[in-house]
Structure formats: structure tokens, C-alpha cells
Amino acid sequence: MEQLLDLDRYPLHAPASPPARELVARCRAALKADGMFSLAGLVRPPAIARCLAEVAPLWAEQAFTHRRDHNIYFDDDIADLPADHPALKRFETVNHTLCADQIPASLPCRLYEWPPLATFLAAVMELPRLYAMADPLARVNVMAYRAGEALNWHFDRSEFTITLLLQASESGGAFEYCSGLRSPHSENHDGVGRFLANPQVEARGLNVTAGTLIVFKGKYAAHRVTPVAGAKARIVATFSFYENKGASFSASERRGFYGRTQPIMLDRDG
Predict the structure, then answer these.
(1) Smallest Cα–Cα separation from 143: which of 115, 172, 173, 171?
(2) What is the pLDDT of residues 84-106, one digit of tens each?
């Protein structure tokens, strides 16, 4: 991992060392204050370049194009809200996805399966342990957003969201978020509706460069990626960790997000 990651700056491999403990404390404070933290330049540029070259041939034939009309909850069955509630405003998301089973030897999968990463994240989140997802498709995804495409406003299912930017777009493709818009104790539907009516008032942006790892409370923070412009796609890897073993998407969720329900090696009918 020393060749892939800047472990001098971010000593994830030595959790008991004073620099690692200081890093955990700094990230924990940022997470509490802002609902997120980032490790700029965690992955070295040559490793990013190799990763992009390895996945480049896969986009044309193997990536699944996910095009979806949705509300911020990715849920069309919010029983306690009328259909015209402002919190249920509709958006469109479009991206192209490669799943973990398609890129098992890639940089994102190697980093995801490297035990010190989960140990570090659990320490920052003040959790006893984090487990890799059992789902062979959803555990790691690499997603591309091309010109005119965006990941629109949404909340995540998992409490924490972990992403690694592999390539920034020429313009557009900005990460925007609003932390603490809802909480474990309140869905704050009316507040969500007010935010969606005029998001630029409360939304914050983050300037992200390739190789940066971002961790944020995606279940409670509304977030999006603005439409991409230019010939260069925005490419990002997402990592899914859970507090309990065995987490997996349902067959219907896999079908919706990936266009199939089984890993490539077992898939017989798409």
C-alpha cells in the first residue's frame, strides 16, 4: 500500500502511532463540526492514473447506465406525506456504474479490502468495528458522470458515505451538501421541503481533487453532484461499510441500481 497511498501524511497502517491518533482526532472533530471530513491526496497520482487506464476499456460494454427519476429519499412510498409535499420534489439522476465483481483487482477494491481502512474509519466514527458489505455488487462501485449528467439531491441509506474521487470533470460535477438536514430523531420533512425550494441558501460546496477520500454523514446530509460539463467525465468510487456483518442489497435494489441481480460469474439471464 505504500506505493498506492501517502502513508507518511496519513498513517492508516499504524493506528497506535501518535500521528495516526492525531489524525483520528482531527477527522473526528471535523465530522462532528461539519458532518464530514476529507483526506486530500490520500491516493498517489500514479496509482490513480493506473486505475483509470484499467477501467477505461470497461465503460463502453460493461457499465450499467442508471437513469432514475426520484425524490430526495429514493423512495416513492413515504406514507406520512402527501404526494405534493415540497420534500417530495422530483429529480433525475444519470450515471454509469461498474460494480465490484467487474473490477476485483482494481485500486478501489484493493483499498476497500485493506483492513487498516476499516479500522481507521471505525475509530473516527467512534464505532467498535466496521464490516465490509457482503453484497458482491454493491460493496464497491465506480461511477462515471458524463456531460449533462448528475447525481441529484438525495439522502443515503447508510449512516456514513465513503467516496474516492478518481477523476474530476473539466467543469461542473461539484459536490454540494447540507449537513444535519434530518436526524435519527426527526425526519424534518418541512425543513427538507424548504431546503429543496431554495438549496443555494444552505448548501455548501467542496472542492475535491483526484485521490481525495471523503467521508460524510450521508443518511442525514442532503447531497448531490451538479451536472458535468465538458468532455472529461467525473469518476468516483464509493465504498460501503456497515456496523453489522452480512449487509446486502435486495434483488430489487440490485436490479434498479445495476440492471442485474447476480455477480457476473453467476449471471445467466442478466
Answers:
(1) 173
(2) 999 999 999 999 999 999 999 99
Please determine, for residue 111, whether its predicted confidence score (pLDDT) is greater than 90. yes
Q: What is the DSSP string of the chain?
A: -TTTB-TTTS-TT-TTSHHHHHHHHHHHHHHHHHSEEEETT-B-HHHHHHHHHHHGGGHHHH-EEEEEEE-TTS-S--TTS-TT-GGG--EEEEEEEEEGGG-TTSHHHHHHT-HHHHHHHHHHHT-S--EE-S-TTTSEEEEEE-BT--EEEE--SSS-EEEEEEE--SEE--EEEETTSSBTTB--HHHHHHHHHSGGGT-EEE---TT-EEEE-TTTSEEEEPPEESSSPEEEEEE-EESSTT----HHHHHHHHS-SS-TTT-S--
Residues listed for the chain: 270
Rg (CA), the chain: 18
Task: Please report whether residue 6 resides in a domain.
Answer: no
Q: What is the pLDDT of residues 129-171, one digit of tens each?
A: 999 999 999 999 999 999 999 999 999 888 889 999 999 999 9
Determine how many CB atoms are found less than 10 A away from the CB of residue 2.
9
Report yes or no on 149 lying in a domain.
yes
Domain annotation covers residue 200:
yes
pLDDT score of 178 more than 70: yes
Domain count, the chain: 1
Find the domain containing 51 and state its range. Answer: 18-60+68-258
Q: Residue 115: is its pLDDT beyond 60?
A: yes
263 occurs within a structural domain: no
Looking up residue 79, the CATH number of its domain turns out to be 2.60.120.620
What lies within 8 Å, CB to CB, of 82 at 6+ separation is: none
**What's the pLDDT score for residue 267?**
46
